[in-house]
């Protein structure tokens, strides 16, 4: 054993050396660094935490020293104090790690894919003390295809707050599914929180529901920081009602309409309170929404880094940015197969077809065409491991083109009595191309646009790409 | 296209069971319609009328189900009847798949109720 400090950790026994000479005699291979600390006495004492030696406390004296009983008593007491402090630090670090891990485990694993929109979200735990825990973000689709986004902040920190956060986030999901309205969902949560045991908790939350066709965003806020909307200009949207768990328990739905190319940020207060000045933090957020959020591939992360100024946050921060990136007369989206695929694609098609000018009657039938093609991919293209599907819709020379492409093994829609899908698709098509290749299948449906005389075409946003989508081969 | 998945209600009464279908009938919701059809058929009141006027989406999954149930009901008279107003955008689907010979489609519920001897066959 070439190092007395390591030997103390191994044995748990105190080691005293009256001079460097006596130390070197026992440990001839001492590091030069230990030798250079001086020629005086050394004392090595174990730091015992929870019955185990966690480290060694080393005393280096300037001169030769014969250790008295008082010396030994003093050093042992000091080592005991250090061990207690070390134990607390380690416990706090462990608790913080558990809280951080729990917090992350309670946040959504993945965000939904919504054609025409991007959702970016991030959570950054506080670095000091046990401030971790309590903030959340969430995004999910209702069965009718509308997108729900929520952010919230449970009062308090640590494991208990993280646990409450997990319960609230899930409860808000269920309430949103059941009610379909943000204010009604918050009312349900507020009631549950008031009657929670052993004691009621308080939380702030914002719940919003986006209609992907009309782009109307309905939201209700329970004491939560106001959302920031960045369209032609950047503005704070109206705030809300008292927090959950206190106050009147009544919440109001507020409405705004997003525009093509716009962004909406939901966040927790840690984002704008980093400088202990909410006004300055909010102003910085407005600037970031106009700046980095518009150009970054991950606006939520960009906003957090910008507002934190490279400094780790003092409080938890959760940010969710919803961006309207591709709603117009062209739709191109690659989506994973899943329970929301059909409905979210239907809504995206509805808006795109309206922008193209397809009349209501033909839209209903083309929805069936798209549904038949997607259903075939769902049922036949992939095995249980799943896959994804790319959908393209665009106008071309007076026609509307619907293209569905998978990367699996495609089985032709059957034309017998048990497979009516192909019969329907062919009957409604001016032209139907099916290109099968080793890496997948692309089906292209083309039909003349049938416009409705009395129906207005939805405006195409300013962000729409002018580049034409050109069908290729698989 | 809003309105969510299918909602199927069996209209109470002593006559032929009437299923009122609203919303979206696709591969994820067709089982709801199937269950309701079987429940209605089990009443054994001389058939079933399916009203699709409020259906916002109805594709081959729903059509194939109607054909299958019609085949299983074929020994009873009268059997399955569908109501969908002529102006409904999806009415054309019944023409495309040639359902007229198998499942009679009526413009109104009154017409369907008044029909005493609808035709039935083994399949499309």
Can you describe this structure in just a few lines?
The complex is a heterodimer of chains A (474) and B (124). Chain A has 474 residues and is of the alpha+beta class.
Please provide a written account of the structure:
The complex is a heterodimer of chains A (474) and B (124). In chain A, a hairpin with a 5-residue loop joins strand 5 and strand 6. In chain A, helix 5 crosses helix 6 and helix 11 packs antiparallel against helix 12. Chain A starts with a helix and ends in a 26-residue tail after the last strand. The relative contact order of chain A is 0.09. The C terminus of chain A is likely disordered. In chain A, strands 4-13-12-9-10 form a five-stranded antiparallel sheet, covered by helices on one side. Chain A has a five-stranded antiparallel sheet with strand order 5-6-7-8-11. Chain A has a five-stranded antiparallel sheet with strand order 14-15-16-18-17, covered by helices on one side. The radius of gyration of chain A is 32 Å and the shape is elongated. By secondary structure, chain A is an alpha+beta fold. Chain B is of the alpha/beta class. Chain B contains four helices and five strands, in the order E-E-H-E-H-E-H-E-H. A five-stranded mixed sheet of chain B has the order 1-2-3-4-5. In chain B, helix 1 packs parallel to helix 2. The termini of chain B are far apart. The C terminus of chain B is likely disordered. At the A-B interface, helix 10, helix 11 and helix 12 of A face strand 3, helix 2 and helix 3 of B.
């Amino acid at each position: 054993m070439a190092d007395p400090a390591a030997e103390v950790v191994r044995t748990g026994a105190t080691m005293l050396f009256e001079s460097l000479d006596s130390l070197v005699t026992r440990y001839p291979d001492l590091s030069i660094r230990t030798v250079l600390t001086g020629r005086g006495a050394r004392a090595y004492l174990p730091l015992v935490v929870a019955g185990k030696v966690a480290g060694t406390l080393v005393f280096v004296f300037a001169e030769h020293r014969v250790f008295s009983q008082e010396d030994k008593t003093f050093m042992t007491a000091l080592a005991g104090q250090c061990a207690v402090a070390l134990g607390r630090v380690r416990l706090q670090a462990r608790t913080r790690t558990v809280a951080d891990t729990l917090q992350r485990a309670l946040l959504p694993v993945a965000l939904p894919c919504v054609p025409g929109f991007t959702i970016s979200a991030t959570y950054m735990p506080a670095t000091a003390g046990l401030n971790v825990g309590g903030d959340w973000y969430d995004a999910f689709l209702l069965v009718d295809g509308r997108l729900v986004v929520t952010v919230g902040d449970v009062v308090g920190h640590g494991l208990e707050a993280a646990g409450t956060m997990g319960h609230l986030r899930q409860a808000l999901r269920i309430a949103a599914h059941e009610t379909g309205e943000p204010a009604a969902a918050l009312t349900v949560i507020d009631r549950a929180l008031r009657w929670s045991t052993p004691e009621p908790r308080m939380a702030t939350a914002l719940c919003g529901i986006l209609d992907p066709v009309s782009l109307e965003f309905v939201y209700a806020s329970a004491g939560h920081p106001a959302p920031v909307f960045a369209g032609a200009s950047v503005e704070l949207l109206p705030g809300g009602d008292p927090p959950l768990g206190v106050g009147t328990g009544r919440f109001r739905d507020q409405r705004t309409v997003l525009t093509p190319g716009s962004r909406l940020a939901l966040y927790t207060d840690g984002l704008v309170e980093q400088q202990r000045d909410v006004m300055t933090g909010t102003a910085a957020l407005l600037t970031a929404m106009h700046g980095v959020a518009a150009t970054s591939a991950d606006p939520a992360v960009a906003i957090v880094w910008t507002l934190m100024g490279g400094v780790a946050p003092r409080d938890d921060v959760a940010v969710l940015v919803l961006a309207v990136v591709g709603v117009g007369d062209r739709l191109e989206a690659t989506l994973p197969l899943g329970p929301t695929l059909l409905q979210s694609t239907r809504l995206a098609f509805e808006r795109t077809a309206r922008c193209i000018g397809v009349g209501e009657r033909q839209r209903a039938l083309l929805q069936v065409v798209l549904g038949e093609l997607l259903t075939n991919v769902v049922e036949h293209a992939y095995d249980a491991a799943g896959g994804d599907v790319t959908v393209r819709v665009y106008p071309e020379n007076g026609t509307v083109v619907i293209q569905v492409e998978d990367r699996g093994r495609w089985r032709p829609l059957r034309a017998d009595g048990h497979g009516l899908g192909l019969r329907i698709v062919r009957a409604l098509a001016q032209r139907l191309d099916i290109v099968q290749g080793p890496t997948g299948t692309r089906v292209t449906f083309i039909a003349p646009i049938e416009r409705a005389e009395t129906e207005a075409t939805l405006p195409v946003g300013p962000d729409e790409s002018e580049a034409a989508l050109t069908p290729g081969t698989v | 296209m809003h309105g969510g998945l299918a909602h199927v209600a069996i209209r109470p009464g002593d006559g032929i069971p009437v299923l009122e279908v609203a919303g979206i009938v696709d591969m994820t919701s067709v089982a709801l319609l199937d269950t309701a059809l079987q429940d209605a058929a089990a009443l054994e009141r001389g058939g079933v009328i399916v009203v699709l006027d409020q259906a916002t989406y109805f594709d081959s999954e729903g059509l194939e189900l109607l054909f299958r149930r019609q085949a299983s009901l074929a020994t009873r008279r009268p059997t399955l009847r569908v109501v969908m107003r002529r102006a409904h955008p999806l009415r054309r689907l019944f023409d495309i798949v040639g359902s007229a010979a198998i499942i009679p489609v009526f413009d109104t519920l009154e017409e369907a109720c008044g029909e005493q001897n609808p035709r039935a066959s083994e399949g499309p």
